[in-house]
Amino acid sequence: MSDCQGLGDCDDTRMQRIYEYLDGALTREDLTEIKQHLDTCEECAEQYDLECLIRTMVKRSCTESAPENLKNSILDRIHSIKSVDA
């Protein structure tokens, strides 16, 4: 059961606050408020968990290197386009 009545009804504003919570962009007071809300609101807790999962996957993907042959193929294509445009 959600406790959002009177707290924004878990709308986009509430989700924005959760994003700010994840980014560490809130005051200590606001951090406490959002943490308490997440502890009592299943809907927001699920959205929070999903956002954490997405951020983890993106972070992991950003650390992987492209295969060397892909890099070379892209660079070759860039050079061929520059040659045609020159």
Topology:
Elements: H1 12-23, H2 28-40, H3 42-63, H4 68-85
Helix pairs in contact: 1-3, 2-3
User: Which ranges are low-confidence, i.e. pLDDT below 50, for 5 or more consecutive residues?
Assistant: none
The average pLDDT is 83
Strand portion, in percent? under 5%
* Computed Rg: 21 Å
Report the order of strands and helices: HHHH
Outline of this structure?
With 86 residues, this protein is an all-alpha fold.
Walk me through this protein's architecture:
Helix 1 crosses helix 3 and helix 2 crosses helix 3. It is elongated, with a radius of gyration of 21 Å. By secondary structure, it is an all-alpha fold. It is built from 4 helices and no strands. The longest helix has 22 residues. The mean pLDDT is 83. 76% of the residues lie in helices and 0% in strands. The N and C termini lie far apart (64 Å).
Any descriptors?
about 90 residues; single chain; elongated
